[in-house]
Write a structure and sequence with these properties.
The structure is a single chain. The protein is mainly α. It has one domain. The protein contains one helix and no strands. The radius of gyration is 22 Å and the shape is rod-shaped.
Length: 51
């Protein structure tokens, strides 16, 4: 019974590591999108002012 629990805990820890890695990746993607969006907004604004 205890061995079975140990195995389950190990599996959960692996899943948690995977989730954390995935979360970090998603955050990076989101930050990248926000940066691109801001840059795009600036270009659009400059285009309107000087276009």
């Amino acid at each position: 019974k205890i061995e079975q629990l140990k195995v389950q805990i190990e599996q959960l820890e692996k899943q948690l590591e995977y989730v954390k890695a995935n979360e970090a990746w998603l955050k990076q993607q989101l930050d990248q999108k926000l940066i691109e969006h801001k840059n795009h907004e600036k270009k659009g604004l400059l285009g309107r002012l000087f276009g």
